[in-house]
UniProtKB/TrEMBL annotation:
GO terms for cellular component: cytosol. The lineage of its organism: Eukaryota, Viridiplantae, Streptophyta, Embryophyta, Tracheophyta. InterPro entries: Citrate_synth-like_sm_a-sub, Citrate_synthase, Citrate_synthase_sf. GO terms for biological process: acetyl-CoA biosynthetic process; fatty acid biosynthetic process. It comes from Trifolium medium. GO terms for molecular function: ATP citrate synthase activity. This is ATP-citrate synthase beta chain protein 1-like. Transmembrane segments: none annotated. Gene3D superfamilies: Cytochrome P450-Terp, domain 2.
Amino acid sequence: MKKKGIRVAGIGHRIKNRDNKDKRVELLQKFARTHFPSVKYMEYAVQVETYTLTKANNLVLNVDGAIGSLFLDLLAGSGMFTKQEIDEIVEIGYLNGLFVLARSIGLIG
């Protein structure tokens, strides 16, 4: 993917790395493992991180990747959405709005 100039969303950090992971990601993962009925999307993200860390030390799961995977776990675990509906939510970029909202609030202050 690097040769094609494609980045993996939710992976990589300018400061954090294999030996200095983002505590927010660790806290979110711990909370989810304790309180979510299923964390299959988060576990997939962790598998991606394991692979990307073989390529570069800073290709860790970042907080956006952790939140994105956990949103999917929440949707799936709620029992209110089918797999097809979850796929549609991802495809239309619905969850991107949540990231934009969070960043906007931070900028406003």
